[in-house]
Design brief:
The structure holds 2 protein chains of 2 kinds.
Chain A: E1 3-5, E2 10-14, E3 19-21, E4 24-26, E5 31-38, E6 44-50, E7 56-58, E8 64-68, E9 73-78, E10 87-95, E11 103-104, E12 108-113
Parallel strand pairs in A: 2-12
Antiparallel strand pairs in A: 1-4, 3-9, 5-6, 5-10, 7-8, 8-9, 10-11, 10-12
Chain B: E1 4-7, E2 10-13, E3 19-25, E4 32-38, E5 44-51, E6 57-58, E7 67-73, E8 76-81, E9 90-98, E10 104-107, E11 111-115
Parallel strand pairs in B: 2-11
Antiparallel strand pairs in B: 1-3, 3-8, 4-5, 4-9, 5-6, 7-8, 9-10, 9-11
Classes of the chains: A mainly beta, B mainly beta.
Chain lengths: ~110, ~120
């Protein structure tokens, strides 16, 4: 069975500082990995994905993530945080073959302080 | 990217009544849609997978007769909460595979259901 772990319920960072939101996964075979962001009372918005190729993936709003196969991780990063980045972030995984149903992590609340 | 429209965004209903939530894919055909429930500050709980033209596949522990899912066309899936109770109050979100992102998913804006 596939699973996603987001070990931090909340990440606090000062505006202008770099941010990292952690994600590790477990899946049979090659993973398809995703990051989504959710603002209050809204659905999830796609940020970026890793399917194949370059391990460093760049996405929307200046976010990027690095796929590390040996550590089964897909941490979300941004060089300089903005207050407007404050939201709930979800990591998701699905296998490249078989089930197309994604598994989501429990979410990490990112709070960027002015 | 592809857009999924979900309505209503908010609904308040009385206990014992039924509420229908619609999820439409606006610019693509979605043979499969997913329905999630989200509790405050918690992750998404997959309730069911909605398949166009066939019965939905429900996750373990989800009452089929309470949460009726219909996927009558390639662009519309509906979730009906029947005989609603206060414990059904939650945030419900639909999603579909997004052909524009390749293997990713696009989500509706969610429906806040409050049962009084």
């Amino acid at each position: 069975a596939q699973s996603v772990a987001q070990p931090e319920d909340q990440v606090n960072v000062a505006e202008g500082n770099p941010l990292t939101v952690k994600c590790t996964y477990s899946v049979s075979g090659n993973p398809y990995l995703f990051w989504y962001v959710q603002y209050p009372n809204r659905g999830l918005q796609f940020l970026l994905k890793y399917i194949t190729g370059d391990n460093l993936v760049k996405g929307s709003y200046g976010f990027e993530a690095e796929f590390n196969k040996s550590q089964t991780s897909f941490h979300l990063k941004k060089p300089s945080a903005l207050v407007s980045d404050s939201a709930l972030y979800f990591c998701a995984v699905r296998p490249s073959g078989g089930s197309y149903i994604p598994t989501f992590g429990r979410g990490t609340s990112l709070i960027v302080h002015p | 990217g592809a857009v999924v429209s979900q309505h209503p965004s908010r609904v308040i209903c009385k206990s014992g009544t039924s509420v229908k939530i619609e999820c439409r894919s606006l610019d693509f055909q979605a043979t499969t849609m997913f329905w999630y429930r989200q509790f405050p500050k918690q992750s998404l709980m997959l309730m069911a997978t909605s398949n166009e033209g066939s019965k939905a596949t429900y996750e373990q522990g989800v009452e089929k007769d309470k949460f009726l899912i219909n996927h009558a066309s390639l662009t519309l899936s509906t979730l009906t909460v029947t005989s609603a109770h206060p414990e059904d109050s939650s945030f419900y979100i639909c999603s579909a595979e997004d052909p524009s992102t390749g293997y990713g998913y696009t989500f509706g804006s969610g429906t806040r259901l409050t049962v009084v």
